[in-house]
From TrEMBL:
Highest taxon above the source species: Bacteria
Keyword Hydrolase: yes
Name used for this protein in its record: Uncharacterized protein involved in cytokinesis, contains TGc (Transglutaminase/protease-like) domain
Gene3D superfamilies recorded: 3.10.620.30
InterPro entries per record: Bact_TGase-like, Papain-like_cys_pep_sf, TgpA_N, Transglutaminase-like
Organism: Alysiella crassa
TM region(s), chain numbering: 15-33, 40-62, 82-100, 112-129, 135-153, 165-183, 546-567
Segments forming a coiled coil: none
Keywords assigned by UniProt, alphabetized: Hydrolase, Membrane, Protease, Transmembrane, Transmembrane helix
Region annotation Disordered: where it falls in the sequence: 657-677
SUPFAM superfamilies membership: Cysteine proteinases (SSF54001)
Length: 677
């Protein structure tokens, strides 16, 4: 039973409950450590430790002017670090500081309860940054900690608080699930969040440039990037899984740069030669870029999606949608009529750089008789037969002519080295070419029936425009030196490379991937389509108001069973009013001393009041009647007698409530004199 009388709420809780509440604040704030600037996190940790130290020496609340200085300083810090105190980042940082500041004025139980309420909003802010499976589990842990802290602030022991909190969560679980499942859903949300741009945020996304080492650094991570399920029972081959993300067409002499936003006329068409597949992608936001299987078909029918240069797919929406349905034509050729402007754009090379590469291109072009397809084959065979090696850690290229140094000296590289060199050879021969970066392959999760693509699957390849066919043709020069990278995985390709990665997916990783997939599919992305699928499993053809009422009504009825059993048990226990009344009496009469005298038995309580000369006759009679009803009789008192005693205890608790003494002023003396007269 939570006592909410003002006198009780204005009392000071014990140290253990305050320390546990600070621990709950730490747990709630932990997810924000990876999202907010280091300056904000550093100040938070410093003042958190300071607050714990003050609690340990008995300083429970700072003065008002001290709190005002802290508030101004923390507000200025957030503004300096983020430029605002509103919005997602600024608002979360400001709320974090205000929650910490609230703990510095935490003297009464009411203050600490308000802090727990603020932590609810702080936890919601953390969820806005991350809705993954691990964050979901962490949220449950934080809610349990907050519930236990709230119970301990009401003088329950840790064991009793933990037990009551877990029982409460279990009782609320089924109604929560039924409300989540049954609430009507829309295909798109009413509101959304802007995409978060955070330099400190861990990301598996790709940058807008490519130079030696940019993709190999990404490959060293085993983080999941997106997952895919194919419809109509389609089972793809590993070699066909080219997930294009970005076109790199501009070279400034040291690195490749992404094509800026512009539309081109490349429109893949459906024909009988190529398989058209439909698939669903679930992913985290990555600057609006959507990995699409070569080659994506028209996306105009989907809200927020559009195609861009090089047949890229991007999402322009504040809705934060994470699940997309796409259609692709499985092919290595993209029909495209390239006008003169774009032919010049895709053959442009840095001047006066890589002369040996240019000479090699001219020689291979002459040997191919000026035929584009034969020239592509000749360049591909050159990498295959000239002793090139595939490695994650190639030698550094220190000269200005990096492509020359790679082709004629080191001959060791990763996919970015081979795609760079191949496109350079194509352009040097006058063929339009470009670098494509994305992901190749993936790992099939048999238990979940989906493909998991990770950072280590990052890849780069080339596309060459064939003037005779008027098509872009995909060419992967990496396969010339590491065919098992395309047909197998990067782990197989680097198996003999001592400098390579060693990432093996064990059973735990597969189950974790499966859990993440189902969490994303059925919790985070639970929309009207998922709801229709779930209701069809329950025997309903459509999601109608009647079906929702049946599902939710049945769930609520089942959830009420344990509540009804608990209510019956409470009603049948006739001594509960006596227990609650006696605890209330001790809290009100003892006041601030209740924390250290809470365990007093009735006789000890009576003796303590007598020693303080605070035991009037009516209060003494009430305590003695409690002893008689509770212990002297061989059977429990009737509910009527117990409730009558409880009502008397309430009245005397108000009458004899402990009032802290304060120095009398002229006004209080005058009022006291008037009351006497």
């Amino acid at each position: 039973m939570l006592i909410v009388q003002p006198t009780y709420l204005n009392s000071t809780p014990d140290l253990k409950s305050m320390l546990l509440t600070m621990g709950a604040l730490t747990a709630v704030s932990a997810p924000l450590a990876t999202q907010l600037p280091w300056g904000v996190i550093g100040v938070f940790v410093f003042f958190l430790l300071l607050r714990l130290g003050l609690l340990m020496i008995g300083v429970y609340a700072l003065k008002t002017w001290q709190l005002m200085i802290l508030m101004v300083g923390m507000t200025a810090l957030v503004w300096q670090q983020l430029g605002t105190v509103i919005g997602l980042g600024g608002g979360a940082a400001f709320l974090l500081m205000l929650s910490l500041l609230k703990s510095f004025e935490g003297k009464t139980r009411r203050d600490w309860q308000v802090l727990i309420l603020a932590m609810m909003f702080l936890l919601a802010a953390a969820i806005l940054f991350d809705q993954g499976l691990l964050m979901g589990l962490w949220t449950v842990l934080c809610l349990v900690l907050m519930a236990v802290s709230l119970a301990m602030l009401n003088d329950l022991s840790f064991q009793a608080a933990l037990k009551n909190s877990l029982v409460g969560f279990l009782l609320a679980l089924l109604p929560m699930v039924m409300l989540f499942v049954g609430m009507p859903r829309r295909e798109t949300p009413f509101w959304g969040m802007p995409q978060i741009q955070n330099e400190r945020q861990a990301t598996t996304g790709m940058s807008d440039t490519m130079k030696p080492g940019s993709i190999s650094d990404l490959v060293e991570s085993n983080e999941p990037v997106f997952s895919v399920t194919f419809e109509d029972g389609y089972v793809p081959q590993q070699r066909d899984l080219y997930w294009r993300v970005m076109i790199l067409a501009n070279h400034n002499g040291s690195e490749w740069q992404a094509v800026r936003e512009f539309m081109d006329s490349a429109i893949p068409v459906e024909d009988n030669r190529h398989r058209v597949v439909r698939y669903n992608i679930m992913m985290e936001d990555d600057k609006g870029r959507i990995p699409a299987l070569d080659y994506p078909l028209d996306t105009n029918h989907q809200r927020g999606l559009r195609r861009e240069a090089g047949d890229m797919v991007r999402v322009f929406s504040r809705a934060g949608v994470r699940r997309f349905t796409l259609r692709s034509s499985i092919s290595d050729e993209l029909p495209h009529k390239l006008d003169q402007f774009f032919q010049q754009r895709y053959t442009r090379l840095p001047e006066n750089l890589n002369p040996r590469t240019r000479a090699l291109a001219q020689r291979l072009w002459q040997e191919s008789g000026g035929n584009a397809e034969q020239y592509i084959q000749a360049a591909y065979l050159y990498f295959k037969k000239q002793g090139f090696a595939y490695t994650l850690k190639p030698p550094l290229l220190n000269s200005a002519n990096t492509t020359d140094e790679f082709i004629f000296s080191s001959k060791q590289g990763f996919c970015e080295h081979y795609s760079d060199a191949f496109v350079m050879l194509m352009r040097a021969a006058g063929l339009p070419a470009r670098v494509v970066v994305g992901y190749q392959g993936g790992e099939f999760n048999e238990e979940g029936g989906f493909w998991q693509i990770r950072s280590k699957d990052a890849h780069a390849w080339a596309e060459v425009w064939l003037p005779e066919k008027q098509v872009w043709k995909r060419v992967d020069p990496t396969s010339a030196v590491a065919a098992n990278r395309i047909d197998g995985s990067i782990d197989e390709a680097l198996l003999g490379d001592e400098s390579g990665i060693s990432i093996k997916n064990n059973a735990f990783t597969r189950y974790l991937d499966q859990g993440r997939y189902y969490w994303q599919a059925w919790i985070v992305d639970y929309d009207s389509n998922r709801q229709q699928t779930l209701f069809s499993y329950l025997g309903f053809e459509r999601v109608t108001p009647l079906a929702i009422m049946i599902v939710m009504g049945g769930g609520v009825a089942i959830a009420l069973i344990p509540l009804w059993l608990w209510w019956r048990r409470s009603r049948s226990n006739d001594i509960l009013p006596l227990e609650h009344g006696f605890i209330l009496l001790k809290r009100r009469v003892l006041g601030k001393d209740f924390g250290k005298l809470a365990s007093l038995a009735p006789t000890e309580f009576r003796a303590e009041l007598a020693a303080q000369n605070r035991l009037p006759e009516d209060l003494d009679n009430l305590i003695q009647e409690y002893i008689r009803l509770r212990y002297a009789s061989s059977h429990e008192p009737s509910p009527v007698i117990a409730r009558a005693w409880y009502q008397r205890a309430q009245k005397l608790a108000r009458k004899y409530a402990h009032k802290p003494t304060a120095p009398q002023t002229f006004e209080t003396k005058w009022n006291s004199k008037r009351e006497t007269e």
